[in-house]
Each structure stands twice: as structure tokens, then as C-alpha cells.
Design a protein that fits this description.
2 copies of one chain form a homodimer. Chain A is mainly α. Chain A has one domain: 434 Repressor (Amino-terminal Domain). Chain A is 46% helix and 4% strand. Chain A is built from 6 helices and 2 strands. The first copy, chain A, starts with 10 loop residues before the first strand and ends in a 9-residue tail after the last helix. Chains A and B meet through α4 of A and α4 of B. The first copy, chain A, binds a DNA duplex through α3.
Chain lengths: 90, 90
Amino acid sequence: MAVKSTAQALHNRIAVLRTERGLSRAQLAEILGVNYQTVGYLERREYAPSLDLAMRISAYFELPIESVFSRTPFPPIRTALHRGRSEASA
Amino acid sequence: MAVKSTAQALHNRIAVLRTERGLSRAQLAEILGVNYQTVGYLERREYAPSLDLAMRISAYFELPIESVFSRTPFPPIRTALHRGRSEASA
DNA sequence: CATGGATGTCATACTTATACAACAAAAGAT
DNA sequence: ATCTTTTGTTGTATAAGTATGACATCCATG
């Protein structure tokens, strides 16, 4: 069957964190020891990772799991980079 | 097929945390919204929970995921309760 | 002892996570 | 414009997580 998700997948920051390191999905996949397609699935939120994989991912990025995965959408990085402004302008 | 785990399951502190709250598996299961057998499987480490379930569990116990689940065995609670002694005696 | 609650075990079924292959589309570099 | 890398898509296959039902065991307590 299709790999399409039925349940609402968890949100994650894998793509941003990976991009920040200048890694391709294939490179990150190799580091994590998973298939490169798996990273794609995770970033596209077609499914959530196993707890074990989630731990390897957050360990690699040196962040707590809750900073990489969340049941509720992540705020834009801007809010972490520049506090005191909520409205966007340019 | 059997539900027996092939891969080495993650360690967790669900049983202790649940016992501390004086909850039965059935009660915890209801709180978490899973089948009561599932809690048993997790405590017996017959398999690891999904990331989503792990998040619900750690949220309920008000602990970070890493404090409830670990790839390496947890030290005995004694070491958290009484620092300064590593060897057991009585 | 009998009853009940909590736990462990077994079997079956369904859903989800992961792997892998092949190909299309997008983006970058030359 | 071609070559290469990266990403998205589709399809198939296997493993792992979860639900359920049935039954056994252990322990407490009436």
C-alpha cells in the first residue's frame, strides 16, 4: 500500500537543522544509519520516526527530542533568533 | 506472528514512575489512550513505543523523554536519591 | 477457600515505520 | 544546454507497534 500518512504526523525541524549543517538527505541518512528515502519521508512528515530513530536524530543535532519533534507546529526560527517581534513585516 | 522483539528494545522507567503514582497498568493505559496490554509490552520491553506515544508518556510524567527512555540501561534510582555512594552493601 | 485485581502469555489482525528500486522534476555548476 | 546532485513520487516488501480476546498465574483479602 501507499506510504501515505493517515494520522496527523508530528512536526519536526529536521530539514532546517540538516540545512544548517549543509548536509544532503543522503549524507544525513548515512550518518543516522537509515535509508536516504527515510529522511525524505520524515521531512515531508509522511510518517513519524521510531523513538529509537528520533533519539539518534536529536542526539546528532545535540538537542532534546522535544526541540526536534513536536505535536504542535514549531514557531518560525525568527522568533528564536529575534525576540520582541511577533508580527512579520519584511 | 509473535510480538517478540528482535531488536534490543529501549530501556524505560515506566514501571517505576507508574508505581510511584500508585497506578495500575490499566489505569495508566486509559490515561494514555492505549490498550492496557500495550503498557505491559512497554514495561516488559517487548517493544518500544512510537515517538508519539513516548511523548504522551513523558508529558504525563512531566519529564523529558530522555528521562523516561534511554538506549543505555538506567542507573538504579538509589543513585538519584542518595549521591556519594556507588557500591551496594545492604 | 473463593473471589477479584494485577500481571504475564499466546494468537491474530491491522497500521505504521523502514528499505529499496526506478524514475521525474528541480536546482547548481560548468 | 548538458551534467550532476538533490529532492519528490510511486510502488512493493518486510519489520515493528498497537488493539483485542482468551487464558494462566500470583497475590491480597473477605
